[in-house]
Amino acid sequence: MELYLSLSAYGGVSTREALTVFWQAGIRHIELAIGPRPDALAVQAIEEFGQQGIVFRAHHAFVWSERHYPLNLAQPQDWKYFQRLTDYLASISITAYSVHGGNFSKTTERDQAYTIFVENIHYLHQLCQERGIVLGVETMYPTPPVSDVENLLDNASELAQFCQDSPQLKIVVDLAHLNIWHDKSLVTQNQWLGLPTERLLEIHISDNDGRQDIHSRITPHTWWIPHITQFPVGVPLVLESRLNRLPVSVVQQEYERIAALIVSL
Length: 265
What we know:
Layout: E1 3-6, H1 15-24, E2 29-32, H2 42-52, E3 55-59, H3 79-91, E4 96-99, E5 103-105, H4 110-130, E6 134-138, E7 149-151, H5 156-165, E8 170-174, H6 175-178, H7 186-193, E9 200-205, E10 237-239, H8 248-262
Parallel strand pairs: 1-2, 1-10, 2-3, 3-4, 4-6, 6-8, 8-9, 9-10
Antiparallel strand pairs: 5-7
């Protein structure tokens, strides 16, 4: 079972700094993600570590330039940017890319936002397919009541509808997000782990308090630990627990702890 460490776990520093810490910790499977500071040298750092043997995947609005593009697929998009983005992914031999469903203002009709999202994701899928990249869409979570926006794919029924509307797309199951669902139950949560293996792109793992997506560390009390034997064999896992600015030794210990947890899968 491959365990990737997300760059979102080590935010607030440059891409090179984060990759250096992961490399020194002996980590060779990394998911590019939002978290590091945007900078003009990110592309060079990614290329150099790739040449040293790092295997990359990419997630959502990952950092790859000094300008950060606010990726929201529930709104109209600049498709020239996505053409450049997918060209870049192909140029560095990344074959797996995942995105969020996007969010929309509470003054907007949810059906309208969903329609825009489906149109966008189908076009992005076409761009990825032309470049040999497999695209996945992540399960999201409900925003707090005080928020001005809502996330798409933040509940089981809408996610099931999306799976029906877009059978050609893979799903990224974020187990921490499922812990925040309003309609959560062990049956509901576990059914997404029960998707056919060929329908899953990857599984994101971290923990939270059941209210906010705080990316805390996994403990024996994390909801999915008793169900770890149900994880589908061969689907990559991505660790997203926050390790910001911790020393190499701590990052290595945490990664190895989680790797040992899943080694029997």
